[in-house]
Write a structure and sequence with these properties.
By secondary structure, the chain is mainly alpha-helical. Helices cover about 75% and strands about 5% of the residues. It has a three-stranded antiparallel sheet. β2 and β3 form a beta hairpin.
Length: about 240
């Protein structure tokens, strides 16, 4: 197996992974082929294939690609799994809360009663929480909003807007995400998001989950473009110091 080599199309066909995905993994440094052909084409070795299957196995657990990269490159997988388990349990709690509220609405409707405004509001909040945030995360995010105040919160969003514009400019120029200036940008972005979330990593994870689920422009109300988010993710994958 170690002597065998795969071109990108052959590996895609053998594993069911698209060529586009393999190229993306290469671009973000998650799976870089060990060799290149004389014409510059990607050539994968047996070790590359084994790493790919580890990536796919961890992706089945819905781990973010950055977490997968850190786990494969020496980070404690147990801590990564524990964080993911905590998030899953939080989402399950949110789903159970939503179920209780939906049952209450169904009962009100079946008894020919109009649901109260409070019931409808509670159900809408539970739907939002179940989709992206646990009740605890939403409470911490709301507490942080109150700590910052309206002006402080607006300043944080303004800071993120400037950083997103900076990321989009680097993407347009084709700056290498490993460039020190870009790595500094990635640090400042992470620090700004941490400030918005009060340093709570689970809230930060929920924010990023919302961006991935809804798309960067919709999730951030236009602050973050798709191009800027894709570029920032590539910068994160390089592995700047936390």
């Amino acid at each position: 197996m170690n002597a065998r080599r795969w071109k990108i199309g052959d590996l895609a066909a053998a594993t069911g992974v698209t060529v586009r995905t393999l190229r993306h993994f290469d671009q973000i440094g998650l799976l870089r082929p060990a060799e290149r052909s004389a014409a510059g084409h990607r050539v994968y070795t047996g070790d590359d294939v084994r790493r790919l299957y580890r990536i796919l196995a961890l992706r089945e657990l819905r781990l973010p690609l950055a977490e997968i990269a850190r786990s494969l490159d020496g980070a404690d997988l147990r801590e990564t799994i524990a964080r993911q388990l905590e998030q899953v349990e939080g989402r399950l709690a949110g789903q159970r809360a939503l179920r209780r509220r939906l049952l209450g609405l169904a009962e009100a409707l079946s008894s020919a009663q109009e649901p109260s405004i409070d019931q409808l509001i509670d159900t809408m909040e539970a739907m939002m929480q179940a989709e992206h945030f646990t009740p605890e995360q939403l409470a911490r995010f709301g507490e942080r909003h109150r700590e910052l105040g309206q002006d402080g919160f607006a300043q944080r969003l303004q800071e993120l807007t400037g950083l997103a514009t900076e990321a989009e400019a680097h993407a347009g120029r084709g700056t290498d995400p490993a460039d020190p200036a870009v790595q500094d940008l990635a640090r400042r972005w992470t620090a700004a998001v941490a400030g918005l979330a009060g340093g709570d990593r689970s809230v930060m994870s929920a924010i990023y989950g919302r961006i991935d689920a809804r798309g960067p422009e919709a999730a951030t109300k236009g602050i973050l473009s798709a191009a800027a988010w894709d570029y920032l993710r590539r910068a994160f994958a390089v592995g700047f110091p936390q």
